[in-house]
Amino acid sequence: MTAAAIRQIVKWYAKRNIREHCPSKIADRLLGPRGPIHQEWSIGIVTGASPLRLRHAQGTANPVLTRYSVSDVRALFVADPFLIRVGNLWHMFFEVYNFDSDRGEIAWATSQDGFAWTYQKIVLRESFHLSYPYVFEWQGRYYMIPETHQAESVRLYEATTFPTDWVCTDILIQGHRFADSSIFMSDDRWWLFTETNPALAHDTLRLYQAPALRGPWEEHPLSPIIQANPHIARPAGRVVRDGHRLLRFAQDCFPVYGTRVRAFEITELTPSTYRERPASYGPLFGPSWRLWTQGGMHHVDAQQLNSHQWIAAVDGWRQVGWPIPEGWQRDRC
Boundaries of each Glucosamine inositolphosphorylceramide transferase 1 N-terminal domain copy (predicted)? Predict the structure, then answer.
């Protein structure tokens, strides 16, 4: 790394510390007024010896997918990547924010090695916003639970032809604006974390449980298990098991949405009890000097390759002056 590059990195961290730790009036005087925050999200790949020790690998051309990778719609950003390996091929499902429909849609990309990705196409769209396409396999079938908060329900989709054709088969839960619902199985029982504050404060985590995938689902007696805490409530990716540890990832949405990712170890999970503790001393991911993550990071989907290696899809954002490219216009009635 050149001396000029090092100076730029030091300068970036200095400005970040001023913004985070100085009173806003002093920060504005030193750095100038802070303009409106427009987030441009991209997707990257990280690796490590455990889901708690993931790093940007040397030689990986991060970000691996950006809005410019999308070829079938006019995309404002890409985010919320989830991975699944079928045979020798990696599949990634993620949100594409379609400028023309003004909502999120679910896209698909493929990779032979997990590092170099090829965008394919949009595979799921609805009349409401879609994001966070939590994809998983169960008993030889492929399922997805995307975020559908505008529909005020948690919806289960099944692939009729994987990976391109999906149909909603079940409404698992209703009654809230569910955000980033994260399903997993533990001790022969299904569990689901989801964030539900309708004011988009990102501070309320609920827990649901069911004896079978399709239900019946009921809320845990201790739910909501987190309230009024935007640092640790909103889910930030797949719940994973690392040896004997069950880990959940949470978004830190302070001071703005999508700032950092934190990890928690679930130490007790029964139909009537729940306990967790921090799994790391600090955030796993957050703002960094890398251009595509200078604003923050808010998602990780970790997959175990072998006993000593993990790979994960992450996302990050940078602040842009205006998110809509010059010349783009929506059709008007």
Answer: 40-316
Query: Considering the domain boundaries, does residue 74 fall inside one?
Result: yes
How many Cα atoms sit within 13 Å of 25 on the Cβ side?
A: 0
Domain that holds residue 29: 1-34
Position 189 in a domain: yes
Q: Tokens 């790979």 belong to which residue? A: 311
Q: Exposed e or buried b for every residue in 239-270, given b needs 16+ CB within 10 A?
A: bbebeeebbbbbbbbeeebbbbbbbbbbeebe
d(CA 299, CA 147): 14
Say what the pTM is: 0.91
Q: Do 27 and 44 fall within a single domain?
A: no
* pLDDT tens per residue across span 119-154: 999 999 999 999 999 999 999 999 999 999 999 999
Tokens of 97: 């924010």
26 and 156 belong to one structural domain? no
Number of domains in the chain: 2
